[in-house]
Design a protein that fits this description.
- With 153 residues, the chain is mainly alpha-helical.
- It has one domain.
- Helices cover 70% and strands 0% of the residues.
Length: 153
């Protein structure tokens, strides 16, 4: 199985876990004399089995990320961390621009006037650079995900 396939499967497992949890919550209590729509014991067994599969899959994904090089000096796990930090930084600067460019209408000269004290144009340029770095790194990661075999224990 390729790493990308394992990532898709992990996402499916996580969605199924959430669905099973919700179904379990809906059937754990009923009015006295009524029967649940689904047997909670069966749902718990299915959930437990799925969580065991999810745990093994995540461990295999993590192992693969730790042992796969994206280039001579960078492992896939490190590239994922770098991509996440670039994304977080980009989000912070985008929110900063939103705050800086928010319009405050004044209805009289006596109201307080707000001024922006950052260079919006420069900040936007920095966001664009971060976006490009993110995209380029993400493309490399996605490409490698489809070329790399999952390392199973």
């Amino acid at each position: 199985m390729k790493l990308a396939e394992a990532l898709i499967l992990r996402s499916d497992y996580q969605k199924r876990v959430e669905q099973l949890k919700n179904r379990l919550f809906q059937n754990v209590r009923v009015q006295e004399g009524d029967q649940p729509n689904e047997e909670p014991k069966v749902l718990v067994e299915e959930l437990t089995e799925l969580l065991v599969k999810l745990e093994k899959l995540i461990q295999d994904i993590n192992r693969t990320n730790l042992h796969t090089k994206i280039d001579q000096s960078l492992y896939l796990a490190d590239a994922l961390t770098t991509r996440d930090i670039i994304g977080q930084e980009r989000k912070i600067y985008s929110e900063l621009i939103e705050q800086a460019t928010e319009r405050h209408d004044r209805y009289s000269r006596s109201e307080i006037k707000y001024v922006t004290i950052i260079q919006v144009k420069d900040t936007q340029k920095h966001i664009d650079e971060l976006s490009q770095k993110y995209r380029l790194l993400d493309v490399k990661i996605q490409e490698l995900n489809w070329k790399t075999d999952l390392i199973e224990k």
